[in-house]
Every structure is written in structure tokens, then in C-alpha cells.
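Its record is quoted verbatim for completeness.
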Amino acid sequence: MIFKQTKYALLPSLLLIVCFFSCQQQDKHRQIDAVIKDFHTQGAFNGAILVAQNGTVVYDTVIGLADFTTKKDLQPDSPFYLASLSKQFTAMGIMLLAQKQLLNYDDPVSKYLPELPEYAKSITIRNLLNHTSGLKDYFESPSLIKPGLTNQQVFHWLQNEKKLNFAPGEKYEYSNTGYLLLSLIIEKVSSKPFALFMKESIFDPLKMEHTQVFEANTTAIKNRAAGFDKNSKPDDYNILTTGDGGIFATTHDLFIWDQALSSNRLLKDTVLEEAFTKPRLNNGTYSDYGFGWNIIEDDTKKVVFHTGGLNGYRTMIWRDLDKKITIILLTNNGDALQMWPVTNAVLAIMGGKKYVE
């Protein structure tokens, strides 16, 4: 007698598979929760964290205070200042304009900013994107950094500088100045304020409802996490530059962003790939910074990530493009955050290792 296997005969096996993966996720959630609570008890984590794999959230929590003075608790919709995580959004703005053929990466910056000083005339948009411009970082001029600092004030400072640190394309050297210039280019090409361009081109289409560029006329941000230093003393964000920073967001919105990148919702995959590609330097070697992303790549993995830090804010987004693991960390407690120990513990758990308290 021949027995035919029906679809119903497969149900027990399918249920076992579903249960196996569900139990795995629950175990990872439990262990990550132990990590975060352990670091929080030690005073080494006050903030928000979201961990996902294959587009599914494994762990998502906020823990601690939004304001150490008033003792107001953090909420799931508490926006944090992103600091340099903002650069990936600025890079996306440039790539969106390039996709519409409104600019080219190899255009000289002076094509859009003719007031650029003579010593910087050979710099291209690509140089700004991958930090190979040779421009001095304005944060290395302490006398310039004052509350209310604007893009225009930084540009005036740049005009009074005399030379580049090196010839464009010669090497990688991180420069906030370069990304500030990218925001000015976006404004020039789009004929819109940077904040409005970001809102209309990225935040609104993706429904990132708790993300915005901070401006002089920005009203109070609801449930905002205020900045404090590692000793829980006030150290809030207080400048008005954009491009290199200037954006507030939540972990949930950054997960929406992560998933949009994975599904090519804003850019064609061929356009987006350049953001995650190591750039070739003048001497034929390659640096590890694409368009708004640090890149770790070898035969076994490809990871793109970025960190941020200013005043009392420390931030990170980690995206393993092969294992589809995303980690988003935001804190408003300065260097009290043990960023890499937390990240490495979470990565170990996601890799199948046990966390030992």
C-alpha cells in the first residue's frame, strides 16, 4: 500500500521549526535584557536600545531617565540627539539628488558654493562624503564652538583658514566641516532649507514621526531626552549646525530607517551600494569610510556602522549586512555609557554565546 503525504502531515514538523526559532529569539531577548539591566545597575547604561535580526525586533527597551534634574523617565518615543549618526542622512540627501541627476559626486564643491576659498577649490562632493577632502575639522577650533553656532559662522571661519591639511583624496581624515558643507549643497541644489528637505525627502516618506532637524526656531521636542554628562550633570546640545549633526530621533525611527535601507525604499540598490563601498585613495589603497558609514569588510562579513558623540549624547547604529543583525544604541548620559562592551555582549548573544552575569 502506498501512503501519500498530505500537507497536514507536515504540520508537526513546521510547528517544531517555528517553536525552535521562537524559543531561540526568546532566549536571546532574555539574555540581552540581563546585559542591559546589569550595565544599568552599574551606572553604565541609561538610554534606549533596539536589537533586530532579519527584520524582526529581538529586543527593544528604554531604561533610565530622560532628565536627571527632574527625574523624568525615558519613554519609548523619547528622541535623542544623534550627533554624527546624522551624517548618514546627509549622505542620503546627496545620493537622492544624484539619483535625480541634479548633481554628480565628482563635481567640485565650488560649483555649488562659489564662495569657497581658493585653497579648497579642488575638493569634490565625493571627497566630502568619504572624509578625504583635507578640510580642517571646525571642532578642532575650540574658540569657535559656542552655543548657537551656525553653518554660516563655520563657513566664515573656513574662508579665513589658509590651507588644507592635505591634498584631496590623499588620505582619510574625519572632518565635520565637510558634512556641514554637504548640507549647504543640499540647500543650494534643492532650493529648500536643510530641515525641510530632510523632512520631505526622508522622514515623512518613511513615517519617521519622531525624527527632526534641530533649528533655531524648533519648538520644544516632546519627551526629548536631555543631555547630561557621565556624572549626571547637565550637558545639553546647544549648537545649530547641520549636516554633520543636528538631528534628533528615536530607536524606533532608526529601525524604520534601517529597514528602508535594506529594502531600497529611497534609492536603487546600485546607487545605495556606493555608500557601503570603500573608496580608493590617490595612492591606490582604500579607506574604510563610504558615504556616511564606516565599513568593516572581509571574507566572512560586511558590517556598516557609525557612532556619534556630542555633549551628553552617545549614539551608535551597527548593521551586519550578511547576518542581518541591527543594533541601535542611544544614551543621554555621556561617557557613562560603556558602548563597546554593551555592543560586544549583544553581538555575542546574537551569535549564540551565553551571557554570564
